Amino acid sequence: xxxxxxPIHGAAGRTAxxxxxxxxxxxxxxxxxxxxxxxxxxxxxxxxxxxxxVIDYTYCKGCMICMEVCPHDAILEVPETHEEI
Length: 85
Ligand code: SF4
Ligand code: SF4
What we know:
Low-confidence stretches: none
Structural class: alpha+beta
Bound molecules: iron/sulfur cluster
Largest sheet: 2 strands, antiparallel
Helix content: 10-25%
Number of helices: 2
Distance between the termini: 31 Å
Shape: globular
CATH topology: Alpha-Beta Plaits
Order of helices and strands: EHEEHE
Mean pLDDT: 87
Strand order of the largest sheet: 1-4
Number of strands: 4
Number of domains: 1
């Protein structure tokens, strides 16, 4: 499964500074379907050594499209604290 047009990583610039909510993956629910990766408009997803998706919070703008498309409710919406930035 490959996107027809892959956006440049962080094309909208560093967006984490103004994010008010953020997605958090519940890995016990994740089936590695890659739909979050495919639909993220900022190309924030990479994969760990077990092929689970990992979010780059430097560029995630908190649009929550990934949560909307996840078929297993494996992505939660949580308030942003900016503690990890
Ligand atoms: S919230 Fe939006 S920008 Fe952030 S990882 Fe999900 S789809 Fe990408
Ligand atoms: S869309 Fe949901 S189930 Fe699929 S890879 Fe992403 S987090 Fe995992």
